[in-house]
Amino acid sequence: MAEEITVKIKLFAIFQEVIGQEEISLGLVLSSTVADALEAILQQYPSLEKWRSHLRYGVNLEFVSSEHLLQAGDELAFIPPVSGG
Questions:
Q1: Residue 82 to residue 24: CA distance in whole angstroms
Q2: How many angstroms separate the CA atoms of 76 and 15, rounded?
Q3: What is the separation, in whole angstroms, between the first and last Cα of the chain?
Q4: What is the chain's alpha carbon radius of gyration, rounded to the nearest angstrom?
Q5: Is the pLDDT of residue 4 over 70?
Q6: Which residues contact 41 (CB under 8 A, 6 or more apart)?
Q7: CA distance 16 to 10
Q8: What domains can you pick out in the chain, each with its CATH number?
Q9: How confident is the model over 8-59, as pLDDT tens digits?
Q10: What span, in angstroms and rounded, lies between the C-alpha atoms of 28 and 18?
C-alpha cells in the first residue's frame, strides 16, 4: 500500500465559492504533484474544470509549476484569475 501525505489546500475566488470553504485537507499518495492534487479536486468538483488552464499554484507561499512535488504538511494554494477594482 502506498504511503500517504496530507496537504492543506487554500481556496480562493471561484474555488472557495464552489467548495464552500476557505481551506481543506487532502490526502494524496507520496510523490504526488500539484497537478495530482488539482485532479483530485476536479474529480469532486467538475464544475471547476473550466478554470484549470487559468490557475496559478503556490506551495508554502511560493509560486510553483503544476509538476512540483508535494510533501506532507505543504500548504497548496489554487489561485484563479480575480477581477475587481
A1: 20
A2: 13
A3: 49
A4: 12
A5: yes
A6: 9, 15, 19, 26, 48, 78
A7: 8
A8: 4-79 (3.10.20.30)
A9: 999 999 999 999 999 999 999 999 999 999 999 999 999 999 999 999 999 9
A10: 21
